[in-house]
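Repro:
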Amino acid sequence: MNTAPPAPMTWKALTSLDEAAFCARLGAVVEHSPWVAQQAWAHRPFDHWQALFEAMAGVIHEAPPARQLALLRSHPELAGQEARAGTMTTDSQSEQGRLGLLALDAATVARIEALNQRYRERFGYPFIVALRLHDSLASVLLAGEARLRHDEATERRLALQQVCEVMRGRLALAVSPDPLSPSTVTALAGSPS
């Protein structure tokens, strides 16, 4: 059963957490990969929200290739089997639902399934895109078609960047940015949830 996400934690409350509570609070901001929060803990203290984001993104980008691949493979496909079965995480349901990916007509489902299949066959993991950065499903589909033209190294780098952008949105919902931090204001400006 899915429940509503908790209200964002204040920055002060987050910085007072012990390791177990920190990992419990932020373990889900990267899809099925609580190890990111666990490893980011070692980089504290975080002076501001952006430092927290950068520490978590650094953990992702510095992970061994096999772990990065496992992280990429842990993401659900767009409007895929997990969406149809209702087994996606609450965050993924919300993100995909915002653009109508959970209630598509048959022709659009077929188009997305074809994109998902071609992408997975080419790269070995699902097409991952930070949906909060797109205003329409058409924009997402265009991005997917364009990314199919990348070589493996370029696409792996871009897919990991997209994971970090998904994480940025989820992190902003989990933790209120520290007040008056110029770097936080800059990092979050223009990034819709």
